[in-house]
Amino acid sequence: MTETPLNRLALISVLAGAVTGLLVAGLNYAIVLTEELVYGTNHLITLDPGSAVSPARLAVSLIVVGFITSWAWYLLGRFGRPMVSVPGAMQGRRMPTVETLLSVFIQVISVAAGAPVGRENAPRLAGGLSATSIASWFRLDLHSRRIVIASAAGAGLAASFHLPLAGALFTLELLLVEMSTRTVVTAMLTSATAVATTGLFITPHPIYHTVPLTEDFHNVVAAVIVGFLAGMAGHWFGIAARAAAAARPLDWRILWQMPLAFCGVAVAAYLIPGVSANGRWAADTIFTIGLPLGTLCVLGIARVMMVLICFRVGTVGGTLTPAFSLGAIIGAIIGLLIDPLFPQVPLGACALMGAAAFLSTTMAAPMFGMIAAIEFTDMQAQGYLPMFVAVVAAALAVRLWGILTDKDQRMQPFTTATWTRDTTDHTPRHDKS
């Protein structure tokens, strides 16, 4: 089959982006409706919808969520066709429409109701599903099909969080691992179209408050320290998250393991504010007013434990916002410890640099981690240099750890393939350095 011309591929990209944007708008509406049902408010109005109800009601809601989602995942796995990940679809396999749609809605509803994992896995799947059908309709050659499906998956993430550039970079850096005119044009067109389409239905809103950050010498030096330490922590968290997801139950055991785990999350959420949901409240609070050192340590440990436990018992989701939140916590802890040396560096700046560094190594994607942090906070251009330095320091930290331990530190990117049963779904391996 001859290669699809670029002009035709561009038109198909716009169509894939539009369909992806519509699906993501539907997912976002499901999130808002679920939050309204559970909390009486939503994340468009309240930074932390869970804070709108009493701790007791929040705990009960989490227990109910654990019970319902355990049965939802069990029934889908028991009676549904095997799921196909985005990397699997890129290899030419067909994604089951009904099962994929059920999966993405279960994911976003459980996260909206308080599951402490990320929701970006669902829109990526939705984008991949839309592009799979479109690629078949237009009879694209295998290479063009691969590009369009990867671009739509990245566009789904972009549309869900209003991150057009980060979504395109996710496609190029994590899924395609390829940079050419065809891939760049397709990824950016699809991402921009999806973001614009979703924006017609869901008004874009800032995910996190802007953090003042400049190219001051003290900020750059602090970026090296924060990036190095937070980057290593993110790498270890990424390893643990992948191991937990790989060990999840795929049979009837999910019916008791998931409810039991969510009982633990409920107890933690009752005692420690900010443990449930995706961690947006914790990160934004640190960026704006800060938190005491003791609170940061307790919250960080609790969130790591809850995220890993939920992955281990079969909760399907992502690591984007949980990793960003954990990075902000670790960055703030480091910022407080080095404050006597760098009193000129704001705590929020350390938190944001830590978030970018932690996210970049957790996702095994330095460029994506940096740009996602910038777009999340609508950062001004004068803050780009310390962010860049923090992410580079994170990558070098992982590389140095590999040299010291004499082990290869490469990791599979955290994509939808993490959650499929098909062990043949792999994306190209690439070095985190």
From TrEMBL:
Designated name of the protein:
Chloride channel protein
Ion transport as a keyword? yes
Instruction: Give the transmembrane ranges.
Output: 9-32, 52-76, 147-172, 184-208, 220-242, 254-273, 285-311, 318-338, 344-372, 384-404
Cell compartment(s), UniProt? Membrane
User: What does the UniProt keyword field contain?
Assistant: Chloride, Chloride channel, Ion channel, Ion transport, Membrane, Transmembrane, Transmembrane helix, Transport
Per the record, its GO cellular-component terms are:
chloride channel complex
GO molecular function (one): chloride channel activity
Task: Specify the protein's topology with respect to the membrane.
Answer: Multi-pass membrane protein
Signal sequence interval, chain numbering: none
Q: One Pfam family this chain carries? A: Voltage_CLC
- Keyword DNA repair among UniProt keywords: no
